[in-house]
């Protein structure tokens, strides 16, 4: 059944909607409403902008290729964020609209910075 659901999900909703496990069934979520995804051991917790969370029994590496790289950026080995919901960018972390502070791993800093256009400053190399 899981294989059928994935195949159905890929055909009907290629990028804007996912089906996620929820209790005894599946819940349809809009991808653009995902604020961030957090890795926790062998699971991923999908945090929605409305505060709801969905825990999935899969590694982050299974979810990441399904996400639009223009919308979602991996900023730490344990976090992928929807850049639409980044409220503040600091050298070592970002603050999301919901107030969550997420550390930016050194490995991911330059790629995240390249996703933004900085106005009003000449020195943004930090």
Automatic annotation (TrEMBL):
Top-rank taxon: Bacteria
UniProt GO MF annotations: DNA binding; phosphorelay response regulator activity
Domain HTH LytTR-type: 24-117
InterPro entries per UniProt: LytR-like (IPR046947), LytTR_DNA-bd_dom (IPR007492)
PANTHER family: STAGE 0 SPORULATION PROTEIN A HOMOLOG (PTHR37299:SF1), TRANSCRIPTIONAL REGULATOR-RELATED (PTHR37299)
Protein name in UniProt: LytTR family transcriptional regulator
Organism of derivation: Segatella copri
């Amino acid at each position: 059944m899981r294989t059928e659901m994935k195949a159905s999900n890929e055909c009907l909703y290629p990028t804007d909607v996912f089906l996620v496990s929820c209790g005894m069934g599946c819940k349809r979520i809009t991808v653009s409403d995902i604020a961030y995804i957090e890795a926790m051991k062998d699971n991923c917790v999908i945090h929605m902008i409305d505060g709801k969370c969905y825990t999935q029994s899969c590694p982050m590496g299974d979810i990441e290729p399904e996400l639009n790289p223009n919308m979602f950026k991996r900023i730490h080995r344990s976090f992928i964020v929807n850049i639409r919901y980044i409220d503040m960018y600091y050298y070592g972390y970002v603050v999301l609209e919901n107030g969550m502070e997420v550390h930016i791993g050194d490995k991911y800093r330059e790629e995240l910075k390249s996703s933004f256009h900085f106005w009003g400053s000449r020195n943004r190399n930090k």
